[in-house]
Amino acid sequence: MAQPLQCLGCYGVVVRRFVLLPVVVVLLAGLVVWWLKFDRGLPQATLEGETAVVGRDAQWVINLESPGQSGFKSVAIRLLADERTFEIAERQFDAQSWRGSGVGALRIPLEVDLGRLGVPEGPATLEVLAETYGWHLFDRDSPVVARFPQRIDRTPPTAQVLSEQHNMRLGGSSVAVVRIGEDATTYEIRVGTYTFPIQRGYFADPSIGLAIFAVPEDLDAGAQPMLRVADDIGNRVDVPLYASIRPREFRERSLEISDDFLQRKIPPIFEARGMAPPSDLLEGYLVVNRDIRRSSEETLRELTRQTTPHELWQGAFRRMSRAQTMSDFGDRRSYTYGDRVVDRQTHLGVDLASLRGAAVDAAQHGVVAFTGDLGIYGQTVVLDHGLGVFTLYGHLSSISVAKGDTVTVGQVIGTTGQTGLAGGDHLHFSTMVHGVHVDPVEWWDPKWIHDHVTAKLDMFPRPGEESSGNEEAAAGEAEGTVATPQAADKLDEGESDNPNG
Questions:
Q1: Structurally, how many domains does the chain consist of?
Q2: Statement: residue 484 has pLDDT above 50
Q3: Statement to judge: residues 221 and 178 lie in one domain
Q4: Which of 255, 310, 332, 474 is the most exposed place for a label (fewest CB within 10 A)?
């Protein structure tokens, strides 16, 4: 019987295969590891916006991209200026596996107070340093991956208060006249959290601006009006205004809410907004007195942002004739239902009552800024008198003007009524300065208007007027009020059963 053929060299072939296979596996594994760990270049850094000039409060946004898949190991940012190094930010990234951190992209927003760091003005370099967990064919000489030339400018615009003493009381108004550097891009009067814009171009000298501002009734007599000026790179300066603010006690009022009032007033207000009135009318009243009241004020602030750039009024504003004052500006009201207080609000105007359906006249020359339903105020007219001064006429039963109409002082614009949240026929009259309600009694007073408003509007010539020389004296008297980097009549009192105002 024939024997099967035997391959005498096959054993060696099999042995060599078993020997080579692990080597191949190791080589392949090494290639995979090398592929995953190898950085194919340097990290890339970009500066959003390519900011070249920064102020005291510097803002940068830096984007970093890793060249491999292992991720960043550390990132640091520093500023070089006047042969000094200022450390801005630094961060370490822990390895999450044998591959590295896995963090391959970063967006780093920076806000830095360069004044606090003591960075000098002049040329500077923003350096970005980054290291990764990746392998490299050659060692890097430096971890710096990007340099961005910068110029540091920490000098704020010049600012000077030209108007002298501002004698005010809580809820009152005044006028500030200021001089502003040409590099200023934002400028305003700040009182607490309230801001009042400064208008340039009113005077012939473009560096001089003015602002009608207020000390709102919800602040205290310690409030400090401040001129704030800033440039386009964030350098800012605050200059205090010389202001004497008299404290004031506002009247406390308690007003009762009746079921009859709720049934008469709440459903129509909801229905006018396409809303079904709630079954609990007291809860509906609270929605109106709180939420809809707040919405009405937001509407007023928005529509008073645009104003005529010069005064339209002439002299004092007119009070409604032959009308009794029923509620005062600033009344602190407590609303009661049964034997409990259900809400508290502040009355931001003066309630004036005359005959039912009495004619309502424009308090001064102006332009109609708004007509229509305004929440708690019902049917309302708002007039723009220029320079941020507005008057509001609420609870009207009829309106005889339209938005955009020019009106003259004394012109009939509507008739009194009890629309909105009014409990009886009357006019709710309010004066506003850039959307902030102020005491109307001041604006009714001819002497107050002259001393506190007109005299300051006449401090400097307007475009087209010749200089009288007085403005130089006025500016000289105010030289000490410069930037560094660092009598109204008493309100008549009366009573009212109107639970709104």
A1: 3
A2: no
A3: yes
A4: 310
